[in-house]
Design a protein that fits this description.
The protein has helices at residues 17-30, 38-43, 49-57, 62-80, 93-101, 116-125, 148-157, 171-179, 194-199, 209-216; strands spanning 3-7, 106-111, 134-136, 164-168, 183-187, 204-206. By secondary structure, it is of the alpha/beta class.
Length: 225
């Protein structure tokens, strides 16, 4: 039976916290707003940009949110062109992806709050062209924790919820997985604590990519509640 394994991106595969925090700081400063504490800025990584900005400023003011989003996107892309700017993959991430891709009964996907442009840049930079057979982004699906990304990923690949796994670092990922009735695996090197992910419904928590491979070989996905 073919398994669909869907990864979050920021905080799960790549360590982009410094670029994100810096771009957020620039966006808030440009709009004349007090910059939230770094830990609060990073807490909403994984949501779509409009959802994250709305949460950070506690407002439904669409105009202000749109300005913050535009400022962030501009700052983010400007920073990614700087020589000392980087968002490296976490140790063990590449080897894990390559190991899973080599399994004939496994399909890989992405479900992320990043834009498609950001995902395409990541794929190009890491030479992952053709690795992920389904890519769901904030451009074509509702923001996490809505299950739309996973529903679309399963529809595109023909996967059944019982044969699908979502791997992420936030409670948003775990809630999305639960809502889509797929197995939820939380990783602890990202932005939310293990306890938060467990409260959000994580079936398993892993602390490194070696531990993740143990959970996925063979893919464990029995009795998703």
């Amino acid at each position: 039976m073919t398994k669909l394994i869907v990864f979050d991106c920021d905080g799960t595969l790549i360590d982009s916290q410094h670029v994100i925090a810096s771009a957020m700081t620039e966006a808030f400063t440009e709009q004349g707003l007090a910059v939230p504490h770094r830990s609060r800025l990073l807490r909403y990584v994984g949501l779509s940009l409009p959802e994250a900005m709305s949460a950070l400023v506690h407002t439904a003011d669409a105009d202000l949110v749109a300005k913050l989003v535009a400022s962030y996107k501009n700052a983010f892309w400007n920073q990614r062109t700087l020589p000392n700017s980087s968002a490296p993959m976490y140790a063990g991430a590449r080897e894990t992806i390559e190991s899973l891709q080599a399994q004939p009964d496994v399909l890989l996907g992405l479900a992320t709050g990043k834009s498609r442009r950001g995902v395409d840049r990541f794929i190009e930079h890491e030479n992952f062209d053709g690795v992920f057979v389904t890519i769901q982004t904030a451009d074509n699906a509702p923001s996490k924790p809505h299950p739309g990304m996973l529903h679309q990923a399963m529809a595109e690949t023909g996967a059944h919820p019982d044969d699908t796994v979502m791997i992420g670092d936030t409670s948003f990922d775990m809630e999305m997985a639960r809502s889509a009735h797929v197995r939820a695996i939380g990783v602890t090197w990202g932005y939310h604590r293990a306890e938060e992910m467990m409260r959000a419904g994580a079936h398993d928590i892993v602390h490194d990519f070696g531990g993740l491979l143990e959970h996925l070989s063979p893919v464990r996905n029995a009795a998703v509640a």
